[in-house]
Write a structure and sequence with these properties.
Strand content: 15-25%
Structural class: alpha/beta
Number of helices: 13
Radius of gyration: 23 Å
Number of strands: 21
Shape: globular
Oligomer: single chain
Strand order of the largest sheet: 3-2-1-7-19
Bound molecules: flavin-adenine dinucleotide
Amino acid sequence: MSRKPSIAIVGGGFGGVGAATMLRRQGYEDVVVFEKGERVGGVWHHNTYPGAACDIPSHLYEFSFAPNSWSRRYAPQAEIQRYVEGVARRFGVLGKVRTGTEVKAAAWNEERGCWRIETSVGAHEADLLLTACGQLSVPKVPPIDGLESFAGPAFHTAEWRHDVDVAGRRVAVIGTGCSAIQVVPAIQPLAAQIDLYQRSPGWTFPKMDHEYSPRARALFKRFPILHRLDRAAIYAGQELGTAALTSQGWLRPFARAVGRRQINSAIADPELRRKLTPTDEIGCKRIMLTDDWYPALNQPNVELVAERIEAVTADGIRDATGAERPAEVIVLATGFASHDFVAPMEIAGRGGRTLAAEWGEVPRAYLGLTVPGFPNLFLLYGPNTNGGTGSVVNTLECGIGHVLAALDEMESRGAERIEVRREAAERFDRELRTALKGTVWQTGCTNWYVDEDGNDPSNWPWLWGTYRRRTQRLAPGAYDLVH
Ligand SMILES: Cc1cc2nc3c(=O)[nH]c(=O)nc-3n(C[C@H](O)[C@H](O)[C@H](O)COP(=O)(O)OP(=O)(O)OC[C@H]3O[C@@H](n4cnc5c(N)ncnc54)[C@H](O)[C@@H]3O)c2cc1C
């Protein structure tokens, strides 16, 4: 191909903005980003619930090429949203984003050697297609009997109803995962009563969040090396955590001791402590970082209900013991449909075969990025690129680095198409499934990574340094390039 290829990106979160920016910095100007929301930002645009913040320190939860002066160690949602928009503006890619545009389907056109993309406002063609749809962008609500009969407002944390005032009202929160532990401490001082419905408790670690003083921020700005050193230290700590969750299980008892100590020192009531202490292995569910969850649970207006929900009624929730608690508002902190990846968008590759058909029950991709039969397609933050630790922004940058390596290779070989070889993809998949068997996520708890059949389409079973190393160059023989 003599001209630079045209590139379409689906999704305008960290992934889409990062890809458009990194591509532009390498001279790829013919780039368009389709985002179904009204703004860029992805989860940080959509999740505006009270208390929303990152749980990986901001010096690592940012693009390596755009260090930021954060207000605190773990930035709140609005600040992260401003950052993503700011990066898009500063690197000149905001104008490439078509907001309010949903991609419905994409099909590979073999004759023309390009992707035809059907959007909510018309069709588009591009040489390369990158999906950056996130793993946590589709809210999930489990089937709960009677939920539709509830008379008051009931909404998911990712679709927070800012027109609903929780002050002085009885609020039922369903779920005790990563969103609940942020939202409950934020609304507890306002609500008359919070009934918190827990399926199973998760392990926590102290977050040790704090504001950066003006002096600390000035130092980070004046001496960027300090910012980089802090980033490197956070990265090393995350890698230690990754080792504990994957191959170095002997580290887990130390982590469990930290988690247990946090509960025991915060919760005096033995019955509440029992309900809050997980019985499963630490890290099997995502470890949650918090400083204010247990103090909030100690407040007289919060009740932890560990019994299963039997049904939602018009004005409350009945648990499995038959006890019914009135509620005026229901908050569904029930997580996301994380295994659907690009769905509901339909992607058809060579011969019209869809990604859904290729995947069957378990989504899989070579390095989480490429799928045999789907030329010039890259899935950012695709199957098995999530983890219990590490910054997804770093993972996304590695994936985008792989796309750039592929584009380089195409340019130097004069190729128009690139497609992962089936043998390479299958070899990688075997290696991955074997490594996953030894991870903590397979130790038998319910978590959002592993499906009911024990398959894990979510997580990366090695260090993040390994992901970087393996993605930054194309392994010899992994790809077919077609002229
Ligand atoms: C509340 C919350 C807190 C989190 N905190 C952290 C954290 O601290 N650290 C961490 O590493 N990770 C965290 N994550 C994980 C988070 O998903 C990633 O960090 C990261 O934001 C993913 O970026 P993304 O661009 O891949 O996906 P997303 O941010 O999910 O963006 C995907 C975008 O694609 C759009 N889209 C999807 N399908 C289509 C379509 N068909 N057409 C057009 N647009 C489409 C969506 O509207 C969305 O805006 C958090 C997630 C949530 C929900």
